[in-house]
Amino acid sequence: MPLNPERFLQSLHHLRSIGASGVAKGVVRPAFSAPDIAAREWLMAQLEACGLQVHVDPVGSVFGLAPGKSLLLGSHTDTQPEGGWLDGALGVMAALEIARAAQEDGGAPVSVVSFQDEEGRFGVTTGSAIWCETLDLATADELVDRDGVRFGDARASMGGKAADFVDPARFRGYIEMHIEQGPVMDGSGEAVGVVTDIVGIRDMKITMQGQQNHAGTTPMALRRDAFQALSAFNAALNERLRNVVTPQTVWTIGHVILHPNASSIVPGKVTFSMQWRDGDADRLTRMEAVIRDTAREIANVQGMALSYGRMLGLDPVAMDCALRAALEASAEEQAPDNWRAMASGALHDATNVAALMPSAMLFVPSINGISHAFEEDTAEDDLVTGLKVLAGAVARLV
Residue 137, by phi and psi: left (phi above 0), alpha (psi -120 to 50) or beta? Predict the structure, then answer.
C-alpha cells in the first residue's frame, strides 16, 4: 500500500487550522459549531476526491464508503471546548490516508467515518451511540448542552446534508487509531499500543436545592448552603469509595453550576456532573449505589432537596481478537519489541461500534500524557509509525 506520510501529516495540520485556538496546537471545534461543520465539509471533499461515496447521516456523522463489503476506519473530528489537534482527528486522517493509498493501489475495500459529537456536547459519544442504536434518535433530540441547546436543533444546523443511516452490515469490522491520552507509553518509550478493552463509563447530573440567603446575616448553623453540601458530598464520597475501587478506577466532578453564583449570597442550589469509569460493569453499579447513598445522606443532614438527571453511560467492551492479532503482528513488524497491549481508560466510538461488528483500537503516545487541553501533542515520527502499523493491519485483513 503506497502510503504518503507527508500527505498524511499535511492533512492533519490542515484540519488543525479549522478552529485553531491560537494557543499551542489547540483547537476549538465542538460538535455542530461553525468550525465543526467546516471541517466536515472539507473532509467530504477529500473523501469524494479519493473515490469514496460520501454519506452524511441524520446526526451529521460523515462516511466515505467503498463499494461492497469493506473495513471501516475512523474516529471523530469534533473537539472538547478547549481541545487538542489529535484527539479523534488522528484516527480520521489516518483513515483518509489509508483510503487514498488503497485507491491508488487498486481499490482495496476501505471506508472512512468521522462520527459526530464523540466529545459529548450533548451526551456520551452521541453520533455513534445513535448509529449503533444504544441511544434512540427521539431521545437524543431532547438532550441539551450546558447552554440549553437541544441536540435536535443543533443537528438541524447541518441543513439538507442528512440522509438515512448507513447499514452496518456493509462493514467487515472497525479499527480506530487514537492518541493514548495518558502517560503510559510516553513514560515507557514504546511506539504503539494495541488496545485490549475499553473501560465503561457512567455519567449523570446531581442537583441539591437548599435556601438562598444573605451572606452577612445568616448564621452558619442555620444555613442550607448548596456549596457546603457539594463539598461535604465530595469529601464523603472519596472516603466511602476506598473499599470499592481499584487503582485504575476514576471518578470526577467536572462541571458545577452554583446558583446564584454571587459573592454576598449563600448559594441555594448546585447542579454538578458526576462521572465514574472502570473496566468492570459490576463495580460501576456498586459505585452508583455508593454515590446515590452518599448524596442522600448529605442532603438529609444539610436540609437539601435532591434530584438526579438522566443516567448516561456505556459498559466495558473487549476488543475483537482477530483484529487485535492483525494490529499486534503489524506492531511487531514496525516496532519490534517496542509496543504493548493495554486497556483504554478513555471512552471511544469503538465502544458503541463493537456492538455491531468486530472492533479494535490502536494507540500512539501522548507527550507528557496531556489531552483535552491545548497542549496535547505527539511526535510526528510516532504519528507516522502508528499510520504504518494501522496500514499493515489493514493489509492483513482486506
Answer: alpha
